Amino acid sequence: MLWSTLFIPTLRELSAEAEVVSHQLLLRAGYIRQLAAGVYSHLFLSQRTLLKITGIVREEMDRIGGQEMLLPALNPAEVWKESGRWDLMGDNMFRLKDRFQRDLCLGMTHEEVMTSIARGELRSYKQLPQIWYQIQTKFRDELRPKSGLLRVRQFIMKDSYSFDLAPEGLDAAFDKHFQAYCRIFDRCGLSYVAVEADSGAMGGSQSTEFMVASDAGEDFVVTCSKCGYSANLEKAIAQASPLAQPDPPEDTSPEKFHTPGQKTIADLAAFTKLPETSQMKSLVMVADNKPVLALLRGDHQLSETKFAASMKAREVRTALAHEIVQWFGAEPGSLGPVGMKNIAIVADTALEGRVNMIAGANQDDYHLRGVTPGRDFKADFYDLRQVATGDRCANCGEVLAIQKTIEVGHIFKLGYKYSDSMGLKVLNAAGEEVKVIMGSYGIGLERILSAAIEQHHDKDGMSLPASIAPFTVVVTPVYIADNDQRHAAEEIYRNCKDLGLDALLDDRDERAGVKFKDAELIGIPYRITIGKKLAQGQVELVTRRGKISRDVNVGDAAREVAKAAAQV
Amino acid sequence: MLWSTLFIPTLRELSAEAEVVSHQLLLRAGYIRQLAAGVYSHLFLSQRTLLKITGIVREEMDRIGGQEMLLPALNPAEVWKESGRWDLMGDNMFRLKDRFQRDLCLGMTHEEVMTSIARGELRSYKQLPQIWYQIQTKFRDELRPKSGLLRVRQFIMKDSYSFDLAPEGLDAAFDKHFQAYCRIFDRCGLSYVAVEADSGAMGGSQSTEFMVASDAGEDFVVTCSKCGYSANLEKAIAQASPLAQPDPPEDTSPEKFHTPGQKTIADLAAFTKLPETSQMKSLVMVADNKPVLALLRGDHQLSETKFAASMKAREVRTALAHEIVQWFGAEPGSLGPVGMKNIAIVADTALEGRVNMIAGANQDDYHLRGVTPGRDFKADFYDLRQVATGDRCANCGEVLAIQKTIEVGHIFKLGYKYSDSMGLKVLNAAGEEVKVIMGSYGIGLERILSAAIEQHHDKDGMSLPASIAPFTVVVTPVYIADNDQRHAAEEIYRNCKDLGLDALLDDRDERAGVKFKDAELIGIPYRITIGKKLAQGQVELVTRRGKISRDVNVGDAAREVAKAAAQV
Fold it and tell me: What's the CATH fold of domain A255-385?
C-alpha cells in the first residue's frame, strides 16, 4: 500500500486524556479515536492489527477443534432470567426495550445463549464433546471506563464454551484451551503468567487467568520466583509473616480496659504498646444482606473475594457505619467477637491457635485484653486475608512478589451451573438423562493489542511484534522526488510483496525525519531506507525494536526482512 | 474436518415457522437458529459461509482502495441529533440509556459516526479522496422481521463511505463501488440487476440498488428486456398505457351531476359508462404534516416515493378519513380539484393535456364532468404514478416486466447532506474552506447468503457455489466400517487438503442415504463417494448442482474436484 493514500492521522502532541502508555500511543499513532466514554472507533491501523490478532486466535481455536459460530448481541431477557444473571449483572448490563416493550439486553458474555442452543440441539452423549466459539462484540456498561482500550464499554472477545459428558472431558477441554491460549499469547509476543483466579459472577469451580505484567493494569498478581506459584491477589495464599511479639501464655479471661478515642489498629498498638500482630481486627461485613463479623490479625487486610467464597455469597460489602451502630450499639472502632450474639463470626486462619489478643469490647472507648478464639467466642476459620508485601510462599517459603497486571484471558470450569439452571441434559450410553458439564473461556482482543503496546514501546512509539503489527515493513525513500530513490523503493516494495511480506511504501512528499518518526510511532517492525548509499547499491535496514541499523544490498533488502521476520 | 466431531444439527422435517425457501433450508440444514424475533444465531455452517462471503467483500473493497475500520455499535445520541436522524429514525432505532442516563442508540448505519471522524481529522484536500469501510453488525428494530435472514433486527453489513473534494471524485468513488459490487455478487454466484433507486432516509442525489430476482423478496423491480432499462418500482418510469376512449373535444365548463353512492373509480366508470382512464383520481396526502391533493388518472396508482420526492418531504402518508372531512367538508369518494382552496395540488404528468374528465365535486354524492386541468384548476405536474403491469418502457416502448427481488446492495451519492449538517470541511488548493462531498455504500452479508440459497437450491437442499459453500467437497465412504473404504476416503481427503480444497470427511457411522441427504441439504458443491467400485480403483464424483455423477480413478479424485471448482 501507498502511505500517501492512507488515513493514518498521527499526532505530534501528547493527549491530555490519556494516562497509560498504550492509550497515549493508540491515540498518537492514529489507531483509535474516542466516540463516547469507553467507546472507541478502530481506524485503519487498529483494525488491521485486530484482524491479525483475530487470525491468530481463530487458527489456534480451530487447532483445538473449536467450531466457530456467531451469536447475537441482542439477547432476550428470558435466557438471562433463567440463569439468574438478569438481576445479578446490575448496572453493568446495557438493557433496552424493543418497539413492543419487550426486555432485551446487550450480551456481556454468552453462557446463556450458548446453553440455550445446546439444550435445543444436543440429545445424546454421542454428540459430545463440543467446543463452540465466536469472535464477537461484547457490551458492558463499566462504571469507570479508562486506560484507552483496557477498560471499555464495547469490545471484541473470543469466547468459547465446552460441553462434556463428564469432568474428565471438561479437564481435557480446559487443558486444550490452556495450551491454545499460551500459543495465542506467545504468537502475539506477550510475556504473560497464568494464575489461579476467582470465578466471580461466572460461577464454577476452577479458573485460570492469563496476566501480562504492566503498570497500566488494574489486577494484582502474586508470584513466587522460586517454586513458580502464581495467583490473582484476590485468591492468592501465603504464609503469614511472623508475630512481632509472642502472645502472653497465661490462661486468663478477657478483661475490659478504657481506650478513649482509640479507633484504629495503629491507635491501639501505640496505646497498648503491643504490636499490630497482637491486635484482633473486627470487620462487619454484609453477605447477601446478612451481617457477618470477620476477624483478622491486626496487620492483615480482608480479601472480599475469599470472604465471599467462604460465605458462598453472591454479593458482599462492608457494613455502613449507621448499620453497625444499629445492629451492635457500638461504633466500628470498638467492636469485637466476645459476647456477640445472633451473628455469624468468621476468622482468618492466622488467628487459629492465638491466645490473649486485644479486641473491641462492643462498648465505645473500651477494648478487651486476653481474648482467645475458641475459649471466649466461637468462630469458623477460613483463609480470609489478602496477601501482603513481604508475605512468604505457602509452598516454599520464598518471599512473594506482587505485581500489577493486565488480564488478557480467563478460562473457567463452569461445572453444572448453567446446565442446572437452564436444564441442559443428554442421554448417556445407558440411556439415562445426565447433566452436561461446561467450561467457558475468554480472550479480549483489544486487551492483547494494549498489552502488546505496554510491553513493546519506547519513547518514540510502539514496537509491535511482526505477527500483529499493522505492516511488517515500510519502504522509505529519503527523497521521493529523487527518481533513482523512488524507483529503487518501488522495486524493493514489489520484492517485499512478492515474498508475501505485508509492506507499505512511504511515498509521501515529506521530510525524511517526519517519515521516520511516523513509522516509529505506529510501530512497523522493519524499515528499509533508501538514501544516499543507493549510489553504492546499498540501503539501510532498521529494526524498530532497539533501532538496530545495518546496510544491505538493494537486491537483498526484501529477503533480509523476510528472514528477520520469520525468526520472531 | 471430520463430520463426526462437528455440530451440524440437520432436521428432516419442514419447519412451520419458515415460509420462504432460504429460511426453511437455513433451519433444516442446521445453519441458524432463532434466538428472538428477527434475531438469529449463526451456527458453525452459517458462520463458515459468512466468513467466505466476508473474505470476498474484503478483497474487493481493498482492491478499490478501501481502508477497513471498525466503528462502535454503541452510538451517542448527539451525533444522530446533529444530522437530524435521531427523530427521523423513529421506532426503527434501538435506543437505550447508560447507567448515567445518557442517551445511546445502536447504529443502524454509520454516516454520522464516519462523518464525525472525518471532520475531526481531515483538514486538507491533500488528504482526499478517502474510502473507509467496515464489516460490522447493524441493528434495526423492524416492525415485522420475516423470511429468516432476509429481514432481521441484527445483521452484518459492509458499509463504506467516500469523501471527495468535488462531484467528479464522488462519481469515481461511486463507479468504483459499482464495479466492486458487481465483482462481489458475481463471485458469490448471484444473478442480479442494478437498478435506479430512491435514496429514502439516506438523503442524496443518485442511488443504485443491486437486486436479486426472487419470490422471497419484498422489493419490486421494473426492467425492460429490450433496452435494458431497470429501476426500483418506487422510482421506475414508463409510458402510460393509451386511453381507453378519447376525451370529448368540446370546450365546455365543469357540470355537476348526481352520483349517489358512487365512491370508487370503478363505481364511477360503471355509472358514467366512461372508462377509468377518463376519470380523475383525487387523493388527499399529508406531506410533512401539510395536506396536499394528488391527482392521477383513474387507472393509475400513486408512488409515495415519487410523491415525497416531488414535495421534497421527509415524511408522507395518506390522510385519514376524519381529517379529509374536517378539511374539505366532503367524503374521500367525492373530492376533486375544482374550487379547492388553500391546498397545494399536484398532478401526475399523465393528466397533462387532458380535457373534460370526470372528477369529484367536493360535495357528497356529486361529481363534475368536463373538468380540464389548467382551465378549471391549477396544479403542478410531476411524475407521481407507479408503473403498472402492461406499461411500456419510456425509452423504447417495449412492455416492461415487474419482478419481485431481494435487495443485496445499495450505493448512494450522499452529496453534502452530512457535510452540511455536521460541518465537514477541508481547505482546497486555494486555501479556502470547502465542503466535502460524500457517498455511502452498503451490502448485507446475510442477504447475500439468503439470496444465493433462493437462487441455488432444489427439493433436496441448497446447491451453493463453491466460493461461499461451507465446504467445497465432502468425501463419503459408503461403509465407514469397511477398512478399504475408510483408508481410501482418508487418503482422498488428505489429497484434497493438500490441493488447498476445503474438504470434509464424512466419517460418521450412518447409512449412506443419511450421509448423502445431509450433504445435499447443506449444499456442498462436490461429493466423492467411495463405494463398491473401489475394487476397480474407482470412486464416484457427484456435482451437487444438477446431481451429475461420474466415475473417476481414486488417485485423480481430488484433482478432478480442484479442476471443477476452479472453473466456477
Answer: YbaK protein (3.90.960)
Q: Please, which residues have CB within 8 angstroms of residue B103's CB and are 6 or more apart in sequence?
A: B76, B77, B95, B97
Torsion of CA A324, A329, A330, A331, to 10 degrees: 40
Question: What is the CATH class of B46-236+402-453?
Answer: alpha beta
8 A C-beta contact, residue A464 and residue A456: yes
- Across A42-49, average pLDDT: 98
Average pLDDT over residues A210-217: 94
508485601: which residue's cell? Answer: A389
Helix residue ranges, H only, A362-481 = 417-422, 445-455
> Mutate which of A15, A51, A69 to test chain B, going by most B C-beta atoms within 10 A?
A69
How many A/B residue pairs have CB atoms within 8 Å? 146
- Angle between the N-to-C axes of helices B44-63 and B445-455, in degrees from 0 to 180, rounded to the nearest 10: 110
Residues 501-530 of chain A whose Cβ lies under 8 A from any Cβ of chain B: none
**C-beta of residue A483 within 8 angstroms of C-beta of residue A207:** no
Does the beta carbon of A40 lie under 8 angstroms from any beta carbon of chain B?
yes
**How many whole angstroms separate alpha carbon A294 and alpha carbon A276?**
17
Q: How buried is residue B80: exposed, middle or buried, by Cβ count under 10 Å (0-12/13-18/19+)?
A: buried
Identify the band that residue A47 occupies on the pLDDT scale cut at 50, 70 and 90: very high
**Cβ atoms of residues A473 and A526 within 8 Å:** yes
CA-based R_g, chain B, Å: 29
CA distance A137 to chain B (A): 9
Nearest to B338 by CA among B281, B378, B365, B309: B378
Within 10 angstroms of residue A483's Cβ, the number of other Cβ atoms is 10
Contact B66, B177 (CB under 8 A): no
Q: How confident is the model at residue B199 (pLDDT cuts 50, 70, 90)?
A: low
pLDDT value of position A203: 52
Residue B100: other Cβ atoms inside 10 A: 9
Which residue matches cell numbers 502475539? A188
- What's the rounded mean pLDDT across residues B320-343? 85
Q: Is it true that A3-236+402-453 and A471-567 share their CATH fold?
A: no
Pairing of strands A548-553, A538-543: antiparallel
- Nearest residue to B521 (alpha-carbon basis) of B455, B460, B449: B460
Q: Answer yes or no: do B69 and A47 touch at CB < 8 A.
A: yes
Half-sphere exposure of A45 (CA within 13 A, CB side): 28
Report pLDDT digits (tens) over B158-175: 999 999 999 999 999 999
From chain A, pick out residues whose CB is under 8 angstroms from the CB of B7: 67, 121, 127, 130, 132
Mean pLDDT for A452-479 is 97
Query: What are the residue ranges spanned by the domains of chain A?
Result: 3-236+402-453, 255-385, 471-567
Which of B540, B474, B545 lies closest to B504 in space, CA to CA?
B474
Which whole number is the average pLDDT over B209-235? 91
- Residue A309 has what pLDDT? 87
Residue contact B41–A76, C-beta within 8 A: no
Topology given in CATH for the domain delimited by B255-386: YbaK protein (3.90.960)
Best mutation target, B70, B136, B143, to test chain A (most A CBs within 10 A): B70
Residue B120 has its nearest CB partner, among A5, A33, A47, at: A33
Q: Which of B68, B74, B132 sits opposite A154 (nearest CB)?
A: B74
- The highest-level CATH class for domain A3-236+402-453 is alpha beta
Q: Which residue has the higher pLDDT, B501 or A335?
A: B501
SS3 at position B478? coil
Interface contact flag, B69 A41, Cβ < 8 Å:
yes
Report whether CATH 3.40.50.800 matches the domain B471-567.
yes
CB A191 within 8 A of CB A455: yes
Q: Where are the alpha helices (DSSP H) in B373-440?
A: 417-422
Q: What are the grid coordinates assigned to A402, written together?
A: 506482587
Cβ atoms within 10 Å of B388's Cβ, excluding its own? 16
